[in-house]
Amino acid sequence: MSVVIFAENSEGKFKKGVFEAATYAYKTANKLGTEAKAIVIGDVNQEDLNKLGNYGISTVLKLNTPSNEFHTQSWSELVSQGFKTMQGSVLIISNTYTGKSIAPRIAIKLGASLATNVIDLPDTTNGFVVKRGSFSGKGFAFVNLSRATKVIALTPNSIDLEEQVTTLTVNSETIGTQAPATQIIGTSKTQGKIPLTEAEIVVSAGRGMKGPENWGMIEELANVLGAATACSKPVSDVGWRPHSEHVGQTGITIKPNLNIAIGISGAIQHLAGVSSSKVIVVINTDPEAPFFKIADYGIVGDAFQVLPKLIAAAKASMSS
Amino acid sequence: MKILVCMSVVPDTTTKITFVENNTKFNTQGVQFIINPYDEVSITKSLELTEKLGGTVSLVHVGLTENDAVIRKGLAIGAHDAFRINAEATDGQFVAEQIAAFAKDKGYDIIFTGRESIDYNGGQVCGLVAELLGLPSVNIITSIEVDGNTATMTRDIDGGSEKLSCSLPMVVSAQKDLCEPRIPNMRGIMSARTKPLTVIEPISVESFGKFQSFESPKPKASVKLIDPEHPEELIQLLRNEAKVI
Ligand SMILES: Cc1cc2nc3c(=O)[nH]c(=O)nc-3n(C[C@H](O)[C@H](O)[C@H](O)COP(=O)(O)OP(=O)(O)OC[C@H]3O[C@@H](n4cnc5c(N)ncnc54)[C@H](O)[C@@H]3O)c2cc1C
User: Fold this and answer.
1) B186 touches chain A (CB under 8 A)
2) Of residues A194, A106, A222, the one with CA closest to residue A153
3) pTM for this structure?
């Protein structure tokens, strides 16, 4: 029995969510009196691989594949096989697009209970109960996973990293899978941008910015803070910003440490996707904007006047 | 082209979410139910495909009789017929098992789901149904074209997008930008009344887990307002008090 993470890599490197999953696995393994292990697919930078040992992982199973291309079916097969090899009982996957694609398929292959959007460690005092986000952030659900094997998709930024130095063994194995049913034709990465779902800081803006030509300020603030940029639905609907930046109930649900919302009213559907942000800052000319009700800090003011000063202050602070 | 659209019925997006019976049940009192927004997109895209290539669009919903009016709205958008599997949809796995049992041997070329339902946000049904049926699955697609037996799609991936192809049959999940959902017109609403809505009894499914209770987000302390003339104070607070930058 062991708690196993699927450590997804992006061009040979791990994102922070992998170390969060490792922390989660280590703590869960401790509760269950077992070890935390990891599966990786393809080649990973040695330094990153070693870093898994800093977060409580004792064994890594490296699965060799002819290419690092992501195919839902073959990756589901690989991870399931690897999990069986490691005699896993709980599998932790980051709730990324890749993770969400493979978690259900793996759950069926393993006859496992499945929980996605998990945001806290399991309560093992009576069964195995996980807390997961529901109603797009307007509620949380506690689910008792009753099968012996469990698959958990952990939402990024839900668990604080905790170092736990462990001696790490790396084993390599080649597992054959069927030829992929899908063929990748081309990949386009949003260059140099932080994916919204993983961002620790998000600068978001709404119709209050009046037009796409005014987004320079938003991007500048985001740059200074190392943040991702986001927008409200109408902004992406009219094409001021790409749809991939739309957050809310029908957009992306985000869970950053800091969300700075500029010129967004805070309609219930918008709040649904952003209310799990740890700290919320609202900048709005309307003191009655509903967003202020869930904000931690607020500036009642005109973004066009506040932003230049705010950017200058942020620059000064970040360089000090 | 034979398309099946999995349709979930969810609380209207403006619903204030509360729980009853000692926080063990979602409070449906006064709540209006709608077609899951991602499933509206699936229905519209399926219609666009069949209008171009010929074929039919069927809806399948796992739920009780009170959802029939919402299913009829799906028919009013243009779907040809609908099937309701007569059971309370207790979780994604239960729903997927029912849909897979129904779809097996019916020869659907494409099974559409939404990327998630906006109530339980599971995002599970696409992968579960596909695996149960032994079909390929492509999650979170933002475009799809079908030529002969091959579909070419764009899917969202972490930090970007990807173009890929897959041969039919397959299961896909729709992202919002796949198309602009159609609004039913009067003719659609009238014809929906006479379209077939077949009720099917569920199969028995072994439980994978149970929703035990729910919790509402903790109320926030009131907002700390900062002088718009001195936004540098905000940076200080974010740095020294909230410690987030
Ligand atoms: C009384 C009651 C109690 C409920 N209790 C629960 C509960 O405890 N836990 C829970 O998760 N849900 C519960 N539901 C809600 C309902 O089943 C959810 O909408 C469904 O579970 C969504 O599953 P998911 O979260 O995995 O969604 P996803 O995996 O996000 O679903 C994605 C897609 O699956 C398809 N789909 C989902 N549901 C259906 C359906 N009913 N028929 C056809 N296709 C569908 C749609 O295409 C949908 O967009 C309850 C509903 C009722 C009426």
Assistant:
1) no
2) A106
3) 0.88
